[in-house]
Amino acid sequence: MNFREIGLKVAVRRIALGLTQDRLAKLCGLSRSTIHHLEAGTLNDLGATKLFSLLSLLGLSMAAQMHENQHDAIEKTL
After folding, report:
1. Residue 73 to residue 9: CA distance in whole angstroms
2. What is the CATH number of domain 3-77?
3. pLDDT given for residue 2 in this prediction
4. DSSP letter string over 12-64?
5. What pLDDT, on a 0 to 100 scale, did the predictor assign at position 19?
6. Domains of the chain, residue spans
């Protein structure tokens, strides 16, 4: 999952909860600009702690996934 996909999920959840970008930013200790850029897919980095805190606040989670070609490469080395 990339920041664009995460941002879209954050935006959908934020709206479903009736929160503005400004209110969400204040609740999670980020700037409104950061929330805006995340939701727009233009944020390059947020840091794991801040990202997981934001997702937790919204009741979202993120699962680690391995692409099929990475899985095949790892199996070949074993």
Report:
1. 30
2. 1.10.260.40
3. 84
4. HHHHHTT--HHHHHHHHT--HHHHHHHHHT------HHHHHHHHHHHT-----
5. 98
6. 3-77
